[in-house]
Amino acid sequence: NNSKGQLFLSTRASKFLPFQEVKIQEMADQVPVGHIPRTLTVHCHGTLTRQINPGDVIDVAGIFLPTPYTGFKAIRAGLLTDTYLEAQHVNQHKKAYDDLVVDARTL
Q1: pLDDT digits 0-9 by tens, 53-71
Q2: Helix (H, G, I), strand (E, B) or coil at 61
Q3: Kind plus residue range of the DSSP H or E element containing 65
Q4: CA quadruple 29, 30, 32, 34: dihedral positive or negative?
Q5: Domain MCM OB, which positions (predicted)?
């Protein structure tokens, strides 16, 4: 395109959507001794944002997609790509303490 000039942000004509990029990793008890836990990037949109906090134990269902390299990096990488998970559903196993209901059974 090579067009020169300045860019101006038009917030009135823009639509901002909630987005969160989360890195998840294996549980410590599932990692073999002497190995590094595997990690995966998860992209959350809309209502799935701000549901996951550090230290949460979760199940994620989604679409496993490639992130192709662009520019000079694509020439050197060949057919390799980075991958990420596009989250469709998040299920938390361990809830925060504020969600805990205190009654006679929990005391």
Answers
A1: 998 889 999 999 998 777 7
A2: strand
A3: strand 58-67
A4: negative
A5: 3-67
